[in-house]
Predict the 3D structure of the following.
Amino acid sequence: MKIRIVAGGPHHLIPELKSYETSSEDLWIGVDRGTFILLEKGIKPDYAFGDFDSVSAAEKEIILKSDIVLNQYQSEKDQTDMELALQWAMDQKPEEIFLFGATGGRLDHEMMNIQLLYRTISSNAEVKIIDIKNEISLKLPGIYTIEREDHYTYISFLAFQGEVKGITLIGFKYPLNKASLKIGASLCISNELVNKSGTYSFDSGIILMVKSHD
């Protein structure tokens, strides 16, 4: 199972969603205004989560008439709509979860959405935040192969918390061998692959990886 979650981030930052649809078995989830965005793009969500305070009365009426399984909440609650949707998605034990519309707009929501990736770090699912210019994911210690993609010019690595130890980059423009990357350090920003593929590895810590283009 593959799950696509769409929140209500700025339209110009949301990529062409249908290009991420791999089969009719994919589940689409709308988060608050993201539900209406999906309908606008010709995709009927299977489920929707939110208090729907970011849609107009007319837009909400369209959502209510669209035969979507709604999980509606009060505005005053201890979790964001995105957190509720992501937790539900994790409970389904999918192989893949992509989050769209999670960046841009309010900075507090964007930062929280990135931090929500930590909730998924121990699962078997591949979880990414994707917008028109970036792909964001968290990685635990290990050895990873990465392929060069025309869409993403740059690959950056940041310490998600504390310190990442033993980071090694092979096949990159700026290689590293058993280096240390501390939170707040820009050592691994804007690197590039020089071959069709490369590897990155590290011994401890959690890495936030960002693939991006200008």
In short: The longest helix spans residues 81-91. Helices lie at 33-40, 57-64, 81-91, 107-116.
